[in-house]
From TrEMBL, chain A:
GO terms for molecular function: ATP binding; ATP hydrolysis activity; ATPase-coupled intramembrane lipid transporter activity; magnesium ion binding. The gene is atp11b. Keywords: ATP-binding, Magnesium, Membrane, Metal-binding, Nucleotide-binding, Translocase, Transmembrane, Transmembrane helix. This is Phospholipid-transporting ATPase. GO terms for biological process: phospholipid translocation.
């Protein structure tokens, strides 16, 4: 029972056995026993809650948060023991906070639920009892045979049984899964592909055995002989293309499909502000405990004498007298804890949450972060890290697609040592002018090599062709159909990698030229025998073709196979492909076996343009004190040239190199290589130390980086920190993440930001404190896994310098202010204990205690934290150095925290003792000679406090929109109106009517008005003086720029235009 | 998720439609360009501001101080702590129905209306257990709560058998010294009339506290006992005025409004009748005190205070002084700032 509950609440994953047996079309064996397995249905549930588990589950999640749990405890204490305040005082704010959070989470979950419903209710066709039935997506069961038509998405993970094509293949695009827009060919299971008739799938009787769903779906076993590979599987979420219809058997449904499994893993990142917030909370918890213990001790010191503890007018009950002293002591301590508990700002978390949630809209709304050409606006995936954007110290950026456009254009190639350029769609050897007759490379000696080269380039790729006419399927029933379609001009290429596409397009363009010379190339058909997929470790791919054969990446080479050789090769490959165990390793071996003895054909050059304003952006980041590291997979010459052209490296920089080749050169000396890298590092380090004037740039490659990290981590870090620019080339994806982690965990714990556009940047994006995805051409993997996504690298400047700055000052002031206002709130109550024998008498009425944080002082700070701007955005963007003012979490440093806390205490003392001296012994404040009581005293303190605390925020506010005015003055007005109303009525359901007419009586005294004014002014006076002196004696650059902006608004606007109109005549060109 | 599927061959066609969908609105709100007032706390604004505020405060301070100084206050301790005082004999708690006398002299006319207070010190009316020890429902005349007082009143909820009305510590400990003021006129003592009306808050007397709707009032208290400490039951607190009995007895109301601090005064009577409405003439006076209330057990003190009031209430030097101090500080700081400003003015930005 308990287990069932836990399952329903989602704590336990559902029970799993080791293998699952799927009976195709759910035809179970007629005889012999089998145990029916229960599989998840095809319902996708991305919502966390159901209607009936929402309350318990959401409550459980919320009370895992330490502050909420703390208030729950306080609330329970109030329920259990006799405490000075009613449980309502902490119960109501807690309820409020919990409700607001629950509504927000519930709403988000409802959106997910709606989206789920749409997916689950989508119509699908399933073979049931021999005929095709339409049903809802959620009704698909494991084993069902599903029909999917063209351009539909697969409703579950399917094993492809047959398609309408004779060869049983189909094309799919996985754009919505991994963002790759190319068409992929998938194959039917060999035994079933012949059964393409509509009624047929019911004839299929098979059993699929497979391990339970895991992240590697690629290891499935067909019952007897067949091993199902990736190419037989159609993953949920992918879309069928270029194929009329397919039949597949559902093997993983619903939450067990790969898409659903992959959704779950996303770790929570916490910002530096949140960490300091928690530290401050602990400090305040310390203060609270200290005050409670001190009060308890003082109470007992006082009560040692009977005349204080039990004067004749205040006798104890029998029960009180007889209870045990220890119990009394504990309950007194708890009572004090309850009395002072408001020093922990209960609504801090909920306000921060609302601020982040609402504030993050500004990023998406920003027109400056909107990219016109691609019609993409900035996207916020998590609002938890807004303020972290203002704290970045290191930026790790990918190169291709991030700094560059990732728009590949074939530029030149080298064949047999001769360099060719593409000029007006023709390939011309270097030095030959465009107008030479034919502009061609007709050179009878070289023609064979060139032909081979172009063949290789045009054949070795995964580019798919899609025609405009939807039904014109590539190579319908033709087995020799691998696409190199020079035959149609209405083609569009789909490729997983942009440089493949660029090459194929270039060859196509050149192909027309070539066709005059050699018709054989254009119209030959090739049968694709094997495709050796590209992967990042091998850095190459190959195809084996029936006629010629080839290889290509950047270097193009080929190998001729004799028939005998081919048979051998095929054997190897097939063995590896169908291997049941360690298939990947064996494939590697087979690939290595094939890809040897290659004959070099030539090399291609593809150009990738730098993105707009990369140079300015990097310069701005550098001025802002941010160190920029470029991490790229490119080789070091390319990387350095990009670095130079994008301003990452300057010409004046002293460039230090730590490269494996260099290490190997020195390796002639018989020293172990790891020691060597150490000594090289040492020498680099000494060079840095020698020369302070010049800026240093460091180039390091992946191999030497891992060496350096393994053996000399500290030394390497030391070198890196002293370099103003670091370039890491030849990096594998995981290495990128490793570098980020290294910096992140170094003693200074700098805040890191990683920005990239491709799947290979995902690990780095997830590792860094802030991950930014570029919405580029390499799919949406990076965007999906990022915290923020922008369309262009140049937007990073505004995102950090303006939005980051705004969010940081907003949230930092918010946090400090919350602690301040709660110190102000509760310290008078603490002081009052010294005047009431530590009897836990509250100073304020319960309603005031309850509403202080949720009504009287909540809105101004929320509005402040949404709209505050210390400096105009243009100034922030023009003066990146202002970013340094807020670096290292400076507004939440211990010093500022101390300042705010002490200010809170100071104000609290002024409120309390101001009122104390005023009423003190002689409380005749009314013109009719009548006297005030204790509630009037507390209300006076409270009134002064609400006004002062609100005005203190007004002093902090630099940017007064109408909303700030409205909530600031509105809050004070609301307090007065509410108090008049609250005190003006005998509340039938309240136990005591202590506050009846207290507020009116208070305000009817002239002295009180004068006292309120003088106390408020006294509180704010030192603060104003301090601000003025700091502004004039020690102005921060932020304050200076406020003057500039305030003084010469028009002029600065002109400057701004000037700066942005500066043109950069040289558009750097990058060759890869 | 649908978006990616769309960007295929007909990308250009869809583009314009999408542009409308994705382009953020260009409004002042979304672009964070809302018109805003951006004040800066710079010397240029603060210095004149401080001068104005400072001067205004000094003016107010002087006015308040003078007003306060014009208020006459006379305070006399009658605890009987010193053996030579007349009330010393009464300070012994064994002594019952003790009456003592306090003679004093007013040298110059005490301007009217004069307010007569009693004061207690070291008396913690703000003790929590004490403060909650009352039953508001009972005090608003709810007869149900006559029979079963709220348990917050404990240990003064019942005498063991019958419920106590009014219950609770506060009511029980009601101050019960009484005073008669005599003025010596031509060798004989003339009673100065004391007005016990209007000493409690109007709302307390008329709204918050109510006697049960039973006449005579005595019947409502059937089956209850008076508070242990009281000499008379609630319905007989003022034998001379039937409207000043029960829960709306003004002395009772004054007592029930708990003092905020351990040293407090409570209004006892106003001297506003007859010739004395204009004040107490100079001369010799004697105060006859029915000394009932014990305070020495907790080192308390009792005193009587005569005071007149202005619009700002009683004598209160603090406000005037505070205004003067803050006002001069404002002026002083503005001078300091002026010097600093002249010396360290910002260099104009580039």
């Amino acid at each position: 029972m308990l287990r069932w509950i836990r399952q329903q609440l989602g704590f336990d994953p559902p029970h799993q056995s080791d293998t699952r047996t799927v009976y195709v079309a759910n035809r179970f064996p007629q005889h012999g026993h089998y145990i029916p397995q229960r599989f998840a249905d095809n319902r996708i549930i991305s919502s966390k809650y159901t209607i009936w588990n929402f309350v318990p589950k959401n409550l459980f999640e919320q009370f895992r948060r330490i502050a909420n749990f703390y208030f729950l405890i306080i609330f329970l204490v109030q329920l259990m023991i006799d405490t000075p305040t009613s449980p309502v005082t902490s119960g109501l704010p807690l309820f409020f906070v919990i409700t607001v959070t629950a509504i927000k989470q519930g709403y988000e979950d409802w959106l997910r639920y709606k989206a789920d419903n749409e997916v689950n209710g989508a119509p699908v066709f399933v073979v049931r009892s021999g005929s095709l039935v339409q049903t809802k997506s959620k009704n698909i069961r494991v084993g069902d045979i599903v029909r999917v038509a063209k351009d539909e998405t697969f409703p579950a993970d399917l094993a492809l049984l047959s398609s309408d094509r004779a060869d049983g293949t189909c094309h799919i695009t996985t754009a919505s899964l991994d963002g790759e827009t190319n068409l992929k060919t998938h194959f039917s299971v060999a035994e079933t592909l012949v059964f393409y008739i509509k009624t047929l799938p019911c004839l299929v009787c098979a059993k699929i055995l497979m391990p339970h769903p895991s992240f590697s779906v690629f290891m499935l076993l067909f019952a007897f002989v067949r091993s199902l590979g990736q190419e037989n599987l159609l993953l949920r979420g992918a879309r069928l293309k270029n194929t009329k219809e397919i039949f597949g058997v559902a093997i993983y449904t619903g939450m067990e499909s790969k898409m659903a499994l992959n959704y779950k893993c996303k770790s929570q990142k916490r910002s530096a502000v949140e960490k300091s917030m928690n530290t401050f909370l602990l400090i305040y918890l310390g203060i609270l405990l200290f005050e409670a213990i001190l009060s308890t001790i003082l109470k007992y010191a006082w009560q040692a004498e009977d005349k204080w503890d039990e004067p004749f007018y205040n006798q104890e009950t029998e029960q009180e007298r007889n209870s045990s002293p220890i119990l009394k002591f504990i309950s007194d301590f708890l009572a004090f804890l309850v009395l002072y508990n408001f020093i922990i700002p209960i609504s801090l978390y909920v306000t921060v949450e609302m601020q982040k949630f609402m504030g993050s809209f500004f990023i998406g709304w920003d027109l400056d972060l909107y990219h016109e050409e691609s019609d993409q606006k900035a996207q916020v995936n998590t609002s938890d890290l807004n303020e972290e954007l203002g704290q970045v110290e290191y930026v790790f950026t990918d190169k291709t697609g991030t700094l560059t456009e990732n728009e590949m254009h074939f530029r030149e190639c080298s064949i047999n040592g001769v360099k060719y350029r593409e000029v007006n769609g023709k390939l011309a050897p270097e030095g030959m002018t465009d107008d030479s007759p034919d502009g061609s490379i007709i050179n009878n000696d070289g023609i064979g090599d060139e032909l081979l080269f172009l063949q290789a380039v045009s054949l070795c790729h995964t580019v798919q062709i899609s025609y405009d006419q939807p039904d014109c399927l590539v190579g319908g029933g033709d087995p020799f159909a691998h696409a190199n379609g020079f035959s149609s001009s209405h083609m569009e290429y789909y490729a997983s990698s942009p440089d493949e596409k660029a090459l194929v397009e270039a060859v196509k363009r050149c192909g027309y030229v070539r066709s005059k010379v050699s018709a054989s190339l254009s119209f030959s058909r090739y049968k694709l025998l094997h495709l050796l997929e590209f992967d990042a470790d091998r850095r190459r791919m190959s195809v084996i073709l029936q006629t010629p054969s080839g290889l290509r990446t950047l270097v193009v080479a080929c190998r001729h196979f004799s028939p005998e050789e081919y048979i051998d090769v095929e054997k190897h490959l097939n063995a590896a492909r169908t291997a049941l165990q360690q298939r990947e390793e064996r494939l590697q071996e087979a690939f290595a076996y094939i890809e040897r003895d290659l004959q070099l054909l030539g090399a291609t050059g593809v150009e990738d343009k730098l993105q707009d304003k990369v140079q300015e952006t990097i310069e701005a980041l550098r001025l802002a004190g941010i160190k920029v590291w470029v991490l790229t997979g490119d080789k070091h010459e390319t990387a350095v040239s990009v670095s130079l052209s994008c301003g990452h490296f300057h010409r004046t920089m002293n460039i230090l190199e730590l490269l494996l080749e260099l290490l190997l050169v020195v390796l002639l000396v018989p020293v172990p290589i790891h020691q060597l890298s150490g000594s090289v590092l040492l020498s680099l380090f000494s060079r840095i130390k020698e020369d302070h004037v010049i800026q240093h740039g460091l180039v390091v490659d992946g191999a030497s980086l891992s060496l350096a990290l393994r053996e000399h981590e500290k030394l390497f870090m030391e070198v890196c920190k002293n370099c103003s620019a670091v370039l890491c080339c030849r990096m594998a994806p995981l290495q990128k993440a490793k570098v980020v982690r290294l910096l992140k965990t170094s003693p200074e714990k700098p805040i890191t930001l990683a920005i990239g556009d491709g799947a290979n940047d995902v690990s780095m994006i997830q590792e860094a404190h802030v991950g930014i995805g570029i919405m580029g051409k390499e799919g949406r993997q990076a965007v999906r896994n990022s915290d923020y996504a922008i369309a262009r690298f140049k937007f990073l400047a505004k995102l950090l310098l303006v939005h980051g700055h705004f969010y940081y000052i907003r949230i930092a002031t918010l946090v400090q202010y919350f602690f301040y206002k709660n110190v102000c709130f509760i310290t008078p109550q603490f002081l009052y204990q010294f005047f009431c024998l530590f009897s836990q008498q509250t100073l304020y009425d319960s309603v005031y205690l309850t509403l202080y944080n949720i009504c009287f002082t909540s809105l101004p700070i929320l509005v402040y934290s949404l709209f505050e701007q210390l400096v105009h955005p243009h100034v922030l963007q023009n003066k990146p150095a202002l970013y340094r003012d807020i670096s290292k979490n400076s507004l939440l440093s211990f010093r500022t925290f101390l300042y705010w806390t002490l200010l809170g205490f100071l104000h609290a003392f002024i409120f309390f003792f101001g009122s104390y001296i005023l009423m003190g012994e002689d409380t005749m404040l009314m013109g009719n000679g009548q006297m005030f009581g204790n509630w009037t005293f507390g209300t006076l303190v409270f009134t002064v406090m609400v006004i002062t605390v609100t005005l203190k925020l007004a002093l902090e506010t630099n940017f007064w929109t109408w909303m700030n005015h409205f909530v600031t003055w509105g809050s004070i007005a609301f307090y007065f109106i509410f108090s008049l109303f609250y005190g003006g009525i005998i509340w039938p359901f309240l136990h005591s009517q202590d506050m009846y007419f207290v507020f009116v009586q208070l305000l009817s005294s002239g002295s009180v008005w004068f006292a309120i004014i003088i106390i408020i002014i006294t509180c704010l006076f030192p603060d104003v003086v301090k601000k003025v002196f700091y502004r004039h004696l020690q102005p921060t650059s932020t304050q200076k720029s406020q003057v500039t902006w305030g003084g010469g608004a028009e002029r600065t606007r002109e400057d701004f235009h000037l700066l942005y109109c500066q043109s950069y005549p040289t558009l750097p060109v990058v060759l890869v | 998720m649908g978006k990616e599927g769309g960007c295929g061959q007909n990308k250009t066609m869809v583009k314009q439609e999408q542009e409308l969908a994705n382009r953020p609105d260009n409004t002042a709100f979304t672009q964070q360009r809302l018109p805003a007032w951006q004040p800066m706390l710079s010397a240029g604004i603060v210095i004149p501001g401080f001068v104005i505020i400072g001067l205004a405060f000094i003016g107010i301070g002087v006015a308040l101080f003078i007003t306060s100084k014009n208020i006459q206050v006379m305070e006399m301790d009658y605890t009987g702590f010193e053996p030579d005082s007349d009330c010393f004999k009464c300070s012994n708690p064994e002594e019952k129905n003790c009456v003592c006398q306090l003679d004093f002299n007013i040298s110059s006319r005490f301007e009217g209306p004069v307010f007569f207070y009693y004061g207690l010190s070291n008396y913690f009316q703000n003790y929590r257990r004490y403060g909650v020890s009352k039953d508001d429902a009972q005090l608003s005349g709810d007869l149900d709560n006559f029979k079963s007082p709220s348990d917050t009143c404990s240990p003064y909820d019942t005498d063991g058998i019958k419920p106590i009305v009014p219950c609770g510590s506060i009511a029980n400990s009601m101050f019960n010294d009484t005073f008669l003021l005599y003025r010596e006129v031509n060798g004989t003592n003339e009673l100065v009339p004391l007005d016990g009306k209007g000493i409690a808050w109007w709302t307390d007397y008329n709204v918050k506290y109510r006697n049960p709707n039973v006449t005579p009032l005595k019947e409502a208290f059937e089956g209850t006992v008076k508070p242990l400490f009281w000499p008379r039951p609630a319905y007989e607190l003022d034998t001379s005025d039937p409207n000043n009995n029960g829960f709306i007895n003004q002395d009772f109301l004054v007592w029930m409004r708990r003092a905020a601090l351990p040293d407090f005064r409570k209004l006892y009577r106003r001297i506003a009748q007859g010739d004395y409405a204009r004040g107490l003439p100079a001369g010799n006076y004697s105060l006859k005190i029915a000394y009932n209330y014990p305070v020495l057990s907790f080192q308390g003190r009792k005193k009587v205070v005569f005071s007149n009031v202005s619009w700002m209430g009683g004598r209160n030097d603090f406000l005037g002084i505070a205004y003067l101090v803050i006002g001069s500080m404002c002026v002083f700081m503005s001078i300091v700032m002026l010097i600093v400003y002249a010396k360290f003015k910002f260099p104009e930005e580039d």
